[in-house]
Amino acid sequence: MTEGSAYSFGDSELAAERLALVARVFEPAMRKFLERAAPRHLHLALDLGCGPGHTTETLAVLTCPDRTVGLDVSEQFLERARKRAGSRLEFVRHDVTDLPFPARPADLIFSRLLLSHLPEPEKQVARWVGELTQDGVLLNDEVERIETRLEQFARYLALTERRIRASGGELYLGPRLDALREGTGFRQHSSDLVRVAPPTGEVATMFRLNLRAMRADGRLEGFASATELGVIGRELDELAGSKAEGEIVWSLRQTVFSPA
Ligand SMILES: C[S@@+](CC[C@H](N)C(=O)[O-])C[C@H]1O[C@@H](n2cnc3c(N)ncnc32)[C@H](O)[C@@H]1O
Fold first, then answer.
1. Residue 40 and residue 54: Cα distance in Å, rounded?
2. Which of 7, 56, 79 has most ligand 1 atoms within 8 Å of its beta carbon, as the pocket-test mutant?
3. Under CATH, what is the fold of the domain 13-146+170-197+251-259?
4. Average pLDDT over residues 92-112
5. Is 18 in the pocket of ligand 1 (CB under 6 A)?
6. pLDDT over threshold 50, residue 3
7. Which residue has the least CA distance to atom 1 on ligand 1?
8. Residues 212, 225: Cα–Cα separation, whole Å
9. Are 254 and 139 spatial neighbours (Cβ–Cβ below 8 Å)?
10. What is the per-residue pLDDT for 1?
11. Residue 78 in contact with residue 70, Cβ under 8 Å?
12. Ligand 1 pocket, 97 CB below 6 A?
């Protein structure tokens, strides 16, 4: 990824470590989504914004396409993905706001936690559906809301939300995708909410990795003072050892779109 890239969280080693944890926390929800919504007998499956390839691997294992291709703008992430997956999966550097995709038409296009970082997500949906076969489906896994009774998490989330918005994205994109029932050449096939309630310690670890990664890359300059960032960091450090459960709950919006 180029320096100063629009992607809010960067692609450093810390960012990759965070995505490994994100993968573990959200994998069961992704698994159920694919089991519910992925067609059988796929020729080509694409994972948009694949990062270091965790989602691509899950996609390949669960849907068994002839060909699975992960697309991302970050060469660092793609290198990691290639190392882990070997030659079983393909990873190609591509900005997914640019069409056509390097492999097409796809029977299945999957994207998780990507549309929230892109401008005009409704337009991206319409354009991505155009990269599908006539029977193909586009599956998006995004955040509807995150509820927490811990002020420490709320403070971190408010900061992250501001950071994403400054790059033209929207953290809580779910409601907009739910409201997107149809458009030129596409229609919404289904829209479901899925709850994920990870243990407090795991969430704090995930959040503090992101905080560190963003601070190290200078991505939080102008968003909070060094003192405020220090406070949030210490609060997350303290929570990282917590064994508590039920203190933070994600509602994920899982939408399926298909050609009209
Ligand atoms: C939050 S991460 C999600 C990674 C993975 N989908 C997951 O759920 O673990 C977002 C990913 O999208 C990638 N990304 C951001 N903007 C992109 C673009 N325009 N084209 C391709 N990839 C992009 C980033 O490099 C990053 O790997």
1. 21
2. 7
3. Rossmann fold (3.40.50)
4. 98
5. no
6. no
7. 113
8. 14
9. yes
10. 52
11. yes
12. yes
* Residues linked to residue 110 through DSSP beta bridges, in sequence order: 47, 139
4, pLDDT greater than 50: no
Residues found in the chain: 260
Question: Once rounded to an integer, what is the mean pLDDT over residues 22-45?
Answer: 96
Ligand 1 touching residue 51 (CB < 6 A): yes
The token pair at 15 is 């960012």
From atom 3 of ligand 1, which residue's Cα is the shortest distance away? 113
